[in-house]
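Cast an eye over this sequence plus C-alpha cells and walk me through the fold:

***
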Amino acid sequence: MENYLKARGRIFDIQKYSIHDGPGIRTIVFLKGCALRCRWCCNPESQEFDIQTMMFEGKEKIMGRDVTVEELMPIILQDEFYYNRSGGGVTLSGGESLLQPNFAPHLLHACKDVGINTAIETTGFAKWEFIEKNLPYLDYVLMDIKHMNSAKHKEFTTQPNELILENARKIAESDVNLTIRVPVIPTFNATHEEIYDIAMFAASLPGVKRLHLLPYHRLGQGKYEGLNREYFLDGVELIPDDYMKQLLETAKKSGLECQIGG
C-alpha cells in the first residue's frame, strides 16, 4: 500500500489502561470478525465482520465502525506517556485481527514507526500469508491453544485445530516473543490430562517460555441475550481457585513459566 496510514479496517471497541493483554499499560484495539465460534466467547459481538446492533442496558448499541490507521493513531498516542513509563503499548485483539490483513499490519507498522510496543491476541486460525504480514511489526504474540484433540476443538469452537497448531510452530520459529494462553473451560479442557497435553505442546515450541491459564468466566454472557443468541455454557459452574492452582502445578511439569491470568 502506497500510504498505509490510509488503510481502513473495522473495529468495535478501544480499551485503555489494560494491564492484562501484554506487558505494561496498554491500549487494546478490538477488531471485528473471527472464524471461530467458541462457546465461552466473551466478545460475541466480535465474531461477525458485519456491523451489528446489540441491545445493551435496554438501548440499541451499534457494534462496529470503520476507521483508518490515520484516525486511530491520535487516540493511541494519547497514552504514550503511560506506555513509556510501564513498558506497555498497543495490543490488537478481537475477534481475530489476523483476518483483517489489509489493516492490522498497517496499524502495527504505524505504532512501530513512533516507537510503540506492539502485541496481538490471536486464535492463530488464519492463512499463514496473513500472519506473516504482521510479524515484522510485532513485539509479542499472545496465542491461544485451546485443546490438542481436533474433534473436541471443533465441537466447542466450530473449527479443527490442525491449522492452529501448525501456525503456533511457525510463529515460534519466526523468533517473535510468543506466549501460549489456555482458556480453561469446564466440560471442555479443565482436566489435568488435557492441560498437561497443551503445556507439553507449548514447551515443544522453539523459544516459548511462558504459559498462561485463563480461568473461565461468564462476563460476556449478557451480550448473547443482547444479540438474541443462545449462550451454550449457561449453567456451567466457575472453576474453584483451589482446582485452578492444581491445574497450574500440572502445567508447570512442562518446565514452562506458568501463571494463572495474564
User: Anything to note?
Assistant: The longest strand covers residues 8-18.
